[in-house]
Amino acid sequence: MSKRKYQYNEPKNTREHIEAIYEEINFSERGKRNYTQDFTIKDLLTRILSTLREEIYKKNSKKEDERYSLSASKTILVLVGITLIFCGKADNDLNWISNNWLAIKLWGIALTSLFIGISLEDIDFFKRIWSFGVTKVISTLAVSGLFIFCTGKASSLINGVFHVDASALPYTRTFVSGFMFFEYISPLIIVVILIIVVFYVLSFISWISQEGDKDYFNFPYFPTLFTLASVVLLVVTINFMRDNFTDFELPVKIYKLGHALDFNEKYTCSNIPEGYTVLFLGDRQDRVLVDYGSPGSTDMDKIIGGRGSFVTMNDYKILPCDDSKQTTYPLNP
Q: Stretch 78-89: mean pLDDT, rounded?
C-alpha cells in the first residue's frame, strides 16, 4: 500500500469505515521519510508492546536479583551460625575462643534461629495465618500470659532456694523467667520444626527418586539447609534443657545465679565479719540475708553453659545490718 486513501478523505459508509480502519492499522510511512512524525495505530501498538516487554524483563530481572541476594544472605547466615555453634566450645584450642565460647555459641544459636524464623515466614501457610489480625492478637495474649506464668514459676523456685521473697533478687528472677519461658515454649517450636523437616525430607527423597538425569536446578537446596539447621538447633536445645532443667540442676543454677547477680561480697554492716556474701532485704535495706555456704564459681559461662556441681544450700541467716560496732554476730549461724 503506497498511498493512503483515507488520510485526508472521510469515510462515508460502513464499507469505507472498515477500509479506513484496515488502512490505519496496516499503513506505515516509516522508512520513506526518517523525519516524519506520522505513526499509525500499528506503529504505536508495536512501540507500546516493546516498552511493556522491556518493563516486564526489567521487573523480572529485579525480582531475580532480589531472590538471589536473599538466597545468598540466608545461606551465609545459616553457615556462619552453624560454624559458630560448633566452634563455641570451652576446650577449643584457640585461647580467644575458649575464653569467649559462650558468647560465640549464643551468637551461633541466634543466627541459626534467625534463619529458621525467616524460612518459616516464607512458607505460604504461615504467611496466610499471620496475615489475620486475630492471629496477632491471640499470639500476643498467649505469649504475655505464658511469660506472666513463667515469672510466677520463677518466683516460686527462687523462694524455694533462698527462702525469701523473689523480689529481693530481681536479676535472678529475670534470668530464671527466661529459662522457664524457653522450657515451656520449646516443645511447640520443636513440633513445628519437626513437621516441616518431615515435609522437606520427603521432597528431597522425591528429588532423589527421579528417573534419568537429575534436574540440579530444582535441587531442594534451602529445604536441605533448613533440615540441617533444624537438626543442629534441636540437638543444642535438647542438651541445654538436659543441662539446666532437671530437678538437680535447676536449683543449683538458681543458687549460683543469685550469687552472681544479686548477692554482694562488699557491705558496710559492721556486725557481720568480712568474707561472706549478703543479700540486702526490704525497702530500707536494713536487713541482710547472709549465706554461710560456698557457691563456688560464679562465672556466668560456667553457670549457664556447664553442668551443676554439689553445693551446700539452705545455710542462711537473716541479720540486721548495723553500722555501729557494738554487736558482732558469730561466724557460724
A: 86
How far, in Å, CA of 235 to CA of 211, rounded?
Answer: 35
CB 255 within 8 A of CB 313: yes
Cell numbers at 194, concatenated: 519437626
Nearest to 90 by CA among 228, 231, 243: 243
pLDDT value at 330 more than 70: no
3-state secondary structure of 290: strand
Contacts of 191-198 spanning 24+ positions with Cβ under 8 A: 192/120, 193/116, 193/230, 193/233, 193/234, 194/230, 194/234, 196/120, 196/123, 196/226, 196/230, 197/226, 197/227, 197/230, 197/231
DSSP letter, residue 167: G
Say what the pLDDT of residue 144 is.
92
Contact predicate 181/203, CB 8 Å: no
Residue 321 and residue 287 in contact, taking contact as beta carbons nearer than 8 Å: yes
Q: DSSP letters along 5-17, please?
A: TTSSS---SHHHH
Q: Give the residue carrying C-alpha cell 534467625.
A: 114
Q: Helix, strand, coil shares of the chain as percentages rounded to 5?
A: 65, 5, 30
Residue 295: closest CA among 195, 96, 161, 169 = 161
Query: Of 190, 232, 265, 266, which is closest to residue 79 (Cα–Cα)?
Result: 232
- How many C-beta neighbours within 10 Å does residue 98 have? 15
For the stretch 250-304, pLDDT in tens is 888 888 888 888 888 888 888 888 888 888 888 887 888 888 877 766 677 777 7
